Structure prediction request, 434 residues.
Amino acid sequence: MIASLLLTAPLLLQEGQAQTPQTPPAAGAQPTAATAAGAQAGTGTIVTPVPSIQAPTQPTGTSSAVFTTLPRRGNTARVGRDFNSRVFSQVRNLVGVRGMEDNDVVGIGVVSGLAGTGDSGALATQLLANSLLARNINIDPALLTTANIAVVRVEATIPAGRKPGQKISVRVSSIGDAESLYGGILELTELTDITGQVVYATASGPVNTDGFSASGQAATATKNHVTVATMPDGATVQREIATSVISEHGYIFLDSKNGQGTFGNTVRIAEAINALYPDVASVLPDGRTVRMSVLDGVPRDQIVAYLDKALAQEVETDNLARVVINERTGVIVMGGDVRLRPGYIHHGTIVVTVGETPEVSQPGPLSGGETVTLPRTTLNVVESNNPGVLLGGASSLEEVVEVLNVLGATPRDMIAILESMLDGGLLIADLRRI
Prediction:
């Protein structure tokens, strides 16, 4: 018995040499996970408890949306001497000479030299490869990179009478996914008619974007529109477009310009020309065109001077009863003969603002929870309560403006009011939307 105790004593000392007296847990206390693990291992070691991990801060933001209408800045400005004055103008400002129109030409080209802001697809490389092939340079499109080139649409307007060798301005716009045309150079591009068969001009050279774009990993700064560029005098006319002030039937046709084609203007133009050259002008049945013949004995090289004298005649112009509105920009333009009938108007506005700012709720570590996106919406509805307005008739443009100012509506509200007044018979005018 004594021998067996002596043999086991070293082993017991070896196992218990690291042991220290263990303080029993307080009554009702729960053992920590580390203590329980140590007890299961039979070490009896006291383990310092792990500090608690603080749960992440949850989002507390809210959504918001604000709609602000700025106060009206002063009253309607009155510019000019007399709102009912008669306005005279030269015939050249009211009509255009048929056969002397401008002509548009177009082409597809490549802008090179971009600083990594070009197209990302294969369209640019294929177009550049085709351009090189036309110069007997055969290169596989796969060998070309697209970062520094972009496919563009090139447009120009050739004025009437422009001769070969003269310069015209060019507009360039990207048709791919290029980020910017800044700093690029347009390769030689042919500008043709709509059929693409006849080349009337060629364009090449540096493009001017009138802006710039700079970006980093987390910020971007852009000035103006950098995917559209211009080239002042960037194209050269290669073929003349035939023009003539005299038609094939020997007449000169004067067509009314946009916004000037009233019957009164057309009749007075014909009368003024006949006062200068008897019985040479007549109004066509469409009411928008004056046909003018050339007097016998006028040399061919004097026809332009003959026409210029007719265009220099002054006539009294009509004040149009027309209202033009642009719903996109809120612009309203009224002609001098716009009138109003008496009536009653009661208008109000409803402004609804909605703001969405979703937030993310992050669960605490080791909690077993899931990340959840929490919607945050702010909805604000404001309805105005304006009194009704009893309108008297307006027999002049000045009175029309004064009546509309009484309503105190914003330009966009005024567009809806004018449309309703036209349907209700209060507005005596032609309403056009652009």
Summary: Confidence is low (pLDDT under 50) at residues 1-42. The first strand starts at residue 88 and ends at 90.
